[in-house]
# Entry
Amino acid sequence: MGLLMVLFALSLSIIPFSASVSDNEVIHDLELSHTNPRTNLETQLLALNPFYQCDIYPRVCRAKNGVAPDCCKKKCVNVDTDRLNCGYCGKKCTSNEGCCKQKCVNMLTDRLNCGFCGMKCKYNESCCRGKCKNTYVDKRNCGVCQNKCKDGETCDYGMCNYA
# Structure
């Protein structure tokens, strides 16, 4: 057990002298897959040490199960889905938008990301308040979102009380 602790301490003291990557550089798994000189054990030990910040050691982010592989302002984030760093560090989505595949989208109205990223509405549906609705027959969204038919009326072909 004592030998294991000595090896652990020794590996942590060697890591800061290894090659480093420039500050605030966004690191993706594909970019480093062939150039990573560190072993898996070294990278995991780096992630366990709270004193190693990703702006100094960007590979720390990749060691945390790949959930947040990018480093932005000393924090591990995922620029594919992070609203405050959408596509690149510092790009913020507005309050009514989410970040899907590095693009800010309004998930309340976007037919390709309705309610959440990747939820596609069918060809005859519209995204109304984050839910796919068929505006040709839905009496609460008749013709367009939020157009309610009166009591007793039906929605046909996108019109209330058609015929």
In short: Residues 2-14 form the longest helix (13 residues). Residues 19-105 form one domain. Helices lie at 2-14, 29-32, 40-48, 59-63.
